[in-house]
Write a structure and sequence with these properties.
The protein contains five helices and no strands. By secondary structure, the chain is mainly α. Helix 3 (43-66) packs across helix 4.
């Protein structure tokens, strides 16, 4: 995500960022479910997870800045990405539906678009 023009406006670069980075390492839902269970049961692991997500946000913001996105917009997009990811991931591990994580992320972004468009 370090070369080429900016993705455009709105949530388009968020979607691309998810496709290229954030969900690449997540595979098996059952394993993710067990991992999430262990994290939620341990305060130290929850804190570590929050630190990891903050680091991911900072890295994503840096990548967006490198692509020509303004500082404010890059920070806002990166933080929003983390929130969307957390909500989508929570939905994904908590359901028995056959949807993949990528689909749940897209649905979550669509709901965010709807919510912000009606404000």
């Amino acid at each position: 995500m370090t070369s080429g023009p900016p993705y455009g406006t709105g949530c388009a670069y968020l979607e691309r960022g998810f496709e290229q980075t954030m969900v690449a390492d997540i595979g098996d839902r059952e394993l993710a479910r067990m991992r999430q269970s262990v994290i939620m049961a341990n305060a130290d692991l929850r804190e570590r997870e929050l630190i990891k997500l903050a680091s991911m946000s900072a890295a994503l913001a840096d990548r967006l800045r490198q692509r020509g996105i303004g500082d404010f917009e890059a920070s806002l997009a990166a933080e929003t990405s983390i929130v969307v990811f957390r909500v989508a991931f929570s939905r994904w591990v908590g359901t028995t539906e056959e949807q993949g994580l990528q689909e749940v992320i897209h649905e979550t972004l669509d709901r965010l678009r709807t919510l912000t468009a009606s404000s």
